[in-house]
């Protein structure tokens, strides 16, 4: 009887994540199947399941890397007045997504009704929202910056989600960068005028 093939766990993890990113980038979340991933890595799907516990585990590992890249992109933004920094963030976020459309879609795609997001995932999203809230709070200290950050993120995220799915043209002929910056400008005008 043949013995099961042994793999270096760290090497296998890197190869699976790299292959999963490639599949996601090519075809979005529907392209990430056990069969396609196993073929891309050159292992059985059982080997992948043993390492990650299933495709959800693979997707979470890819998303963890994507969130780390997003965090690094945000931290690399130059210091600027809050209004300018928020515009720079919107433009950078759209560019970040456009470079990773399929991978980016996996951040918020997938089963949700019966699967709770891991705590680290929610913590990462809360940290992103807190980073957006900080300059909003400096613009309008009397506003609830956390709520305004949620609203701004959702507005920009809607634009980015349609752009990532190549569906923005169904709504408008304007570019995603333009719309994201307009969402920032609208929020700044609203809180600066005490419109809440």
Can you characterise this structure?
This protein is an all-alpha fold and 196 residues long. It has one domain (9-192): Orthogonal Bundle (Tetracycline Repressor, domain 2), CATH 1.10.357. 70% of the residues lie in helices and 0% in strands.
Keywords for this structure?
single chain; 196 residues; mainly alpha; Tetracycline Repressor, domain 2; 9 helices
Mean pLDDT: 91
Give start-end ranges of low-pLDDT stretches.
none
Give, in order, the helices and strands: HHHHHHHHH
Helix content: 55-70%
Superfamily (CATH H level) name: Tetracycline Repressor, domain 2
CATH class reads Mainly Alpha
Query: Which range does the strand content fall in?
Result: under 5%
Large-scale geometry:
elongated
Distance between the termini: 72 Å
Can you tell me the CATH architecture? Orthogonal Bundle
Largest sheet data: none
Count of distinct structural domains: 1
Radius of gyration: 19 Å
Kindly state the number of beta strands: 0
Predict the CATH topology: Tetracycline Repressor, domain 2
| Overall SS class | mainly alpha
The number of helical runs is: 9
InterPro entries: Homeodomain-like_sf, HTH-type_TetR-like_transc_reg, HTH_TetR, MT1864/Rv1816-like_C, Tet_transcr_reg_TetR-rel_C_sf
Organism: Mesobaculum littorinae
Keywords: DNA-binding, Transcription, Transcription regulation
Protein name: TetR/AcrR family transcriptional regulator
């Amino acid at each position: 009887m043949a013995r099961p093939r042994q793999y270096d766990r760290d090497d296998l993890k890197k190869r699976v994540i790299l292959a999963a990113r490639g599949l996601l980038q090519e075809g979005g979340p529907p392209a990430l199947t056990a069969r396609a991933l196993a073929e891309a890595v050159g292992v059985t799907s059982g080997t992948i399941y043993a390492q990650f516990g299933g495709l959800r585990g693979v997707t979470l590992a890819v998303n963890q890397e994507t969130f780390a890249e997003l965090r690094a992109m945000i931290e690399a933004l130059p210091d600027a007045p809050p209004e300018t920094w928020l515009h720079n963030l919107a433009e950078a976020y759209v560019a970040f997504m456009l470079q990773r459309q399929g991978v980016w879609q996996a951040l918020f795609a997938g089963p949700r009704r019966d699967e709770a997001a891991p705590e680290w995932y929610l913590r990462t999203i809360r940290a992103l929202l807190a980073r957006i809230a900080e300059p909003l709070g400096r613009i309008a200290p009397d506003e609830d910056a956390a709520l305004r950050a949620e609203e701004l993120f959702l507005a920009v995220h809607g634009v980015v989600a349609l752009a990532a799915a190549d569906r923005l043209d169904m709504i408008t002929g304007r570019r995603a960068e333009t719309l994201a910056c307009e969402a920032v400008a609208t929020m700044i005008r609203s809180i600066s005028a005490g419109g809440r």
